[in-house]
Input
Amino acid sequence: MSQRRLVLAGLEIRLTDAVTLGGLVGLTLLAVAFAGRLERPVFVIGVNLLFIAFYVGSLLVLKRLRRRELRFLVRTGSVQLTYIQIYQTCNYLQLLFFDWQDDRVLAWEQALFGLQPVVAIQEIYSVLLTEWMFFVYVVYVVLYPVLSAIIFFKHGEEANEDYLFHLGLVNLLCGIGFILFPVASPMYWQEVRTLLTTPLASGTFGAVAEWIRVHIHQAGGSIPSAHCAVATVMWFMARKYTKRGFLWLAPVILSLYISTVYGRFHYVSDAVAGIAAAGLCLLAAPAIKRAWDGRRAVRPGAGP
Output
């Protein structure tokens, strides 16, 4: 069943837009309200306004496009690029209300495991294993548009909207988590960083992952782990729309969970919270869709 579309100022607004564009607008308003607490409020707000204009422009362009290939590129590109901006904005906003919580994470992981997993995992480092772990960590970025393309061209535009909506919802939930419970991550928390002494020697994918760490990553954006949350949603959507893809992705997704800790990007708690966030989104999505479409849930055995 196709999603309900609202017409606002001549634009067709779908559920994906309500979550993705609406989320970015809400974060921008939050930045405006607490601009005095931000290091670069003009930059944060200004870039967000540019992205909002870009997104609205993509909706205007989409109205005039008929070719499937172009519709896919414009729709998927604009939505998935906005996910990145939501992530970046939440990183800028994550210390608005609370300070870093790494000490709490370290304390409960020490109490639970009797050690620090992100430090202890150095015992199993090897070049081949490290290269595999970095491969699954990096390929996640490619899976975003590739899985979208498979769903779009195999099942149609509405199926892709379903995929984009789920991804938007889980990205927004992770972003809210960054703000409500800011965690710097192992590579940025000095107490842990000084214990990470074993080199992460690897090959090509290790080099790419390290480039991402140096040029894109920054302190924070840790809990829930967006990598684990989004990968879990992708895996679920692969099962829904391409069962063979679900099987092929199994070793990648399961390894990716481990790679977030192995590669020193996250604590174990971040990964667990990310998987839990994905589960929450998957459970809540049907009710959100019904509310958007103005439909009531049908009880088993009930008539039309």
Remarks:
- Residues 127-155 form the longest helix (29 residues).
- Residues 296-304 have pLDDT under 50 and may be disordered.
